[in-house]
Amino acid sequence: MVFPPGHHAEITERRAFSRTEKWTLGSVIVVLAAFAVILAIALSGPTQSTARGCVDVSILGATGGAAIHQCGANARALCQTAGRRVGYTGETRQEIQAACRKDGFAVG
User: Fold this and answer.
1) Which of 71, 34, 37 lies closest to 55 in space, CA to CA?
2) Which residues form the domain of 79?
């Protein structure tokens, strides 16, 4: 196969980016940088630690999740509620009961 004159120079020299390519590349870099900042802030945010006398449970659901953090009398009331037939049900009840037992609260 015979290549036209100057073919090698055409494929080996660097082509300058067009205005649209520069704009697109810059936009992608800005979006990735913003995502990295948001992720860093979310991961370094404050977390609650479970102190003695507190119940801390994360509940997952079909439409989202919730965090339950109760201490003292509120924790005792939560553990009493989790042991009854009314109120929390299914896996949520089991998770609350396990957290109550782990922290030394009576269930039901």
Assistant:
1) 71
2) 54-102
Is residue 2 one of the residues assigned to a domain? Answer: no
Q: Which two tokens stand for residue 66?
A: 């919730």
| Residue written as token pair 């802030």 | 41
* Residue the block writes with tokens 């396990």: 98
pTM of the predicted model, to two decimals? 0.50
Q: pLDDT in tens for each of the 108 residues of the chain?
A: 787 887 777 777 788 889 999 999 999 999 999 999 998 887 876 655 566 778 888 888 778 888 888 888 998 888 888 877 777 778 888 888 888 888 888 887
The answer to the question of residue 48 being in a domain is: no
